[in-house]
Amino acid sequence: MRARTLSLLLHLLAAAASSFTPSASTDTIYRNTTLTGNQTLVSAGGIYALGFFSPAGADGRTYLGIWYASIPGPTTVVWVANRRDPVANAPAALQLSAGGRLVILDGNNDTVWSTAAPTVGNVTAAQLLDSGNLVLSADGGGQSVAWQSFDYPTDTLLPGMKLGVDIRAGITRNITAWRSPSDPSPGDVTFKLVIGGLPQFFLLRGATRVYTSGPWNGEILTGVPYLKAQAFTFEVVYSPDETYYSYFIREPSLLSRLVVDGAATQLKRFSLNNGAWNSFWYYPTDQCDYYAKCGPFGFCDTDRSPPCSCLPGFVPRSPDQWGRREWSGGCVRSTSLSCDGGDGFWVVNRMKLPQATDATVYAGMTLDQCRQACLGNCSCGAYAAANNSGGIGVGCVIWTVDLLDMRQYPIVVQDVYIRLAQSEIDALKAAATGDHQHLHKSKLIVVIVATISAVLFLLAAAGCCFFWTKKKKASKKGEGEDMTSLPPSTADFALPYRVRSQPSLSPVRDHKQLLDASEETRYATDKDVDLPLFELEVILAATDNFAGRKRIGAGGFGPVYMGVLEDGQQVAVKRLSQGSTQGVSEFMNEVRLIAKLQHRNLVRLLGCCIENDERMLVYEYMHNQSLDTFIFDEGKRRLLRWQKRFEIILGIARGLQYLHEDSRFRIIHRDLKASNVLLDRNMVPKISDFGIARMFGGDQTTAYTRKVVGTYGYMAPEYAMDGQISIKSDVFSFGVLVLEIITGRRNRGSYEPDLDVNLLGYAWMLWREGRSMELLDEALGGSFHHSRALRCIQLALLCVEAQPRNRPLMSSVVTMLASDNAVLPEPSEPGVNPGIMSASSDTESSRTRSATANYVTVTRLEARSTTSTGHSSL
Ligand SMILES: *[C@@H]1O[C@H](CO)[C@@H](O)[C@H](O)[C@H]1NC(C)=O
Ligand SMILES: *[C@@H]1O[C@H](CO)[C@@H](O)[C@H](O)[C@H]1NC(C)=O
Ligand SMILES: *[C@@H]1O[C@H](CO)[C@@H](O)[C@H](O)[C@H]1NC(C)=O
Ligand SMILES: *[C@@H]1O[C@H](CO)[C@@H](O)[C@H](O)[C@H]1NC(C)=O
Ligand SMILES: *[C@@H]1O[C@H](CO)[C@@H](O)[C@H](O)[C@H]1NC(C)=O
Ligand SMILES: *[C@@H]1O[C@H](CO)[C@@H](O)[C@H](O)[C@H]1NC(C)=O
Ligand SMILES: *[C@@H]1O[C@H](CO)[C@@H](O)[C@H](O)[C@H]1NC(C)=O
């Protein structure tokens, strides 16, 4: 009886709910439902919402759109149905017609917009999916899709959307900016695929080409050569049926979108980060990204001044214009082609391929065959490999048109073979060899040096070390003046000291073993890895067989023990955990890098030990452990008065400056944080843990990594989100560290109870309100130097600015710290640390930390690309 009443009640409720309006939160409308007013469809996982909205300033014109359900209000609209056909008289209503069309009606029940009549199936439902796709299909889903919003992008490419053409379906998908923020109708700026020759994407303003991705060579888009995806994967599919670009997000909680920005005329990727949309990735980025900047047969290189040059064998068309920095006229041949078999080719490398929409592609032809094809056609000016899938280089492309939009990169992208008259080639060859005889010589020297160092390294990696620095010399260097030079050459190493001349392992096996697990093997042939070798017995004796009580913490790849050598010297021994492959690569990295560095503010490596399965690094012992054990400890942080904290900040800044600018190598630490700053007997700070540091060569300033490692809370946003590594990502971590030292609070996990902000946000809020002094650790007890403390806060805020280019170099930081008179710029809002993955990161952690370090250091590995379509970095 009671049961029947209940079921009747439920029945009535259900009927009431389904009458003409969608119930609370549904993702589907049927033929019997109408969506109107503020009602929305919300995708099953609560990610996207669909409904009517009216942009501010649109005079009440109403549009049907899709936005993020988690962001209050339709503020970030990613799709608009009726961008050209707004509803002028409310209320607007959305229905699924009996004929299976989605229609928007205005207040007079007139149809203002509708989808085409379906050609397939019996459309009975329109469903909003968690991908942000609105799909018309037969009830029950899974059936054939009659229509989908993904086929009609507006200004935003969401993950999984395709940008390009579907030849079978006759659909062209591009993204076009809104006319203005109050008007979603199509504006001037579009990003689209152009087919013909090799696929290539263009950013256009009207009919004018502003930027191009460069041709797809089967492996990468040659204008976007850096592999920097860590949270993203990409594909370009190029087949007779369809050609498109698409991207995917590996971290499901990360919201990200690719948008055409009409005002800036840029293609931008935005990622949501602590409630704010950030864009660190945009094109065009630099002057060489602008389309055909250097004209026909010219090429652009940001590292040259002026940036434009003519290809070898070419001269400016108008030297006058060229001299006035007007490069669009481009270049012409110095000697015309003979075209009777008297021509040859000159290779230019590291190139973005010339525009290839009008080039001729030969799939399956080898490079040699292509050369012949080019020689056989008088109008052919160049050829290159295309379809590089897997580096095999099947297929090629020839240009019988002007070579446009080339640029040279500092990294390997692609070779282009330029056709020149034989006399030009002879001249170029003579210039390369004749004039530069010494080049030849130095090449030989390089080869010899490389060979020697490879051999040395082989032995060094296996035995790790043969020599011992003269002890006196070593101790002299440890303290006292800053050492900006390298360790002495091997000739300076003498006195064997607790060293065996031959390691107990076979050198080759061990070397290979180490390198196999090492991710960045390209650094493996570095010179001067001459580290003293300790015998295992010595280490065992020093640490009482790794007694538990000797354990003092954990480093990046294993536990750390305190030890005392025979002569009474105290050391810290970092022992690689057994079976950790990650650890082996970090171990090698640390050996390679730190062995070359000496500075008062860097921890010093005394030697290593590789025996049987043991791998250990031996450091000078740091009596006061790590900085975090002081600044985050209620009792101990009272011991750190202002002057001491200031000296620590200055010391860390100097150590970092040495890494970035003063050593012969440019080194990015990548994991600077309180637990990686050690304090010696005199509280002098020493940066430690180089397990994931990166060394940059020559002029390289930025790199991209597919593997983001580091510690959330300290990671610069552009690094965490886009994998961009530069010295400026370390500067960000430094800024966080300074704030932590001053406040005695952690950036992560120190949320202001009443304000939903972390330390950076809190510091910024107080700064804007002129209350910065409230930030200072009360444990300082008023010991601080008022104006200097304020300067430290200002400096820290400058270091954590969102845009890397606005952050100061460490040399400026040191100057600003050391001088009370230097004028500091006004900081702007800090970049937010990635808050994503905060909950799940613990499970991903693979760099384990000591108990004192509550921070989680995270490693995220990019999965390998699954298809032959490969990666690009759009
Ligand atoms: C509306 O249609 C759907 C599917 O066709 C059906 O499940 C639902 O019961 C209908 N609602 C009403 C009130 O007719
Ligand atoms: C619905 O939208 C109107 C404006 O169109 C607004 O005034 C009203 O507050 C909204 N109602 C709800 C429940 O959000
Ligand atoms: C529009 O159609 C609905 C339902 O079919 C009806 O209730 C309403 O009166 C109509 N409005 C106008 C202006 O015709
Ligand atoms: C389409 O589906 C509706 C509801 O399921 C049904 O009433 C109608 O007969 C179907 N029409 C055809 C042509 O299958
Ligand atoms: C973008 O695509 C739409 C739909 O196919 C098309 O109408 C429009 O002309 C395209 N825009 C450009 C600039 O190619
Ligand atoms: C790339 O090479 C593969 C293997 O030879 C071939 O099947 C494919 O058609 C080529 N694609 C293009 C675009 O040349
Ligand atoms: C040279 O190549 C172009 C482009 O493929 C072609 O149109 C032209 O016919 C070729 N000329 C000769 C002589 O083969």
UniProtKB/TrEMBL annotation:
It catalyses: L-seryl-[protein] + ATP = O-phospho-L-seryl-[protein] + ADP + H(+); L-threonyl-[protein] + ATP = O-phospho-L-threonyl-[protein] + ADP + H(+). Residues 546-824 form the Protein kinase domain. This is Receptor-like serine/threonine-protein kinase. It is found in: Cell membrane. It is a single-pass type I membrane protein. Residues 339-421 form the Apple domain. Belongs to the protein kinase superfamily. Ser/Thr protein kinase family. GO terms for cellular component: plasma membrane. Residues 26-149 form the Bulb-type lectin domain. Keywords: ATP-binding, Cell membrane, Disulfide bond, EGF-like domain, Glycoprotein, Kinase, Lectin, Membrane, Nucleotide-binding, Phosphoprotein, Receptor, Serine/threonine-protein kinase, Signal, Transferase, Transmembrane, Transmembrane helix. Residues 1-19 form the signal peptide. GO terms for biological process: immune response; recognition of pollen; response to other organism; signal transduction. The chain crosses the membrane at residues 444-468. Residues 825-851 are annotated as: Disordered. InterPro entries: Bulb-type_lectin_dom, Bulb-type_lectin_dom_sf, Kinase-like_dom_sf, Pan_app, Prot_kinase_dom, S_locus_glycoprot_dom, Ser-Thr/Tyr_kinase_cat_dom, Ser/Thr_kinase_AS. SUPFAM superfamilies: alpha-D-mannose-specific plant lectins, Protein kinase-like (PK-like). Residues 838-851 have a biased composition (Polar residues). Its EC number is 2.7.11.1. It holds the Pfam family B_lectin. GO terms for molecular function: ATP binding; carbohydrate binding; protein serine/threonine kinase activity. Its main location: membrane.
